[in-house]
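User
New here, explain this?
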Amino acid sequence: MVNVWISLIGPPADEALFREIEAQVRAFSAWLYLLAPLAVLRYARVPFNPPLPLLQQHERGALSHPGRH
């Protein structure tokens, strides 16, 4: 239905890697678009604002590992 242009940012890619990426894009089935509503429903129950204890737990984890993001 559409043309997709694939380009890699950075040094020239290995030809085998580029062929693998191209094969994955070509193998994508348009029928998978029918699953999009399920992806939205999956996260419908996730709260918009996480609970404060969860935020504090992740904040402590980030502070104990500086430089890891």
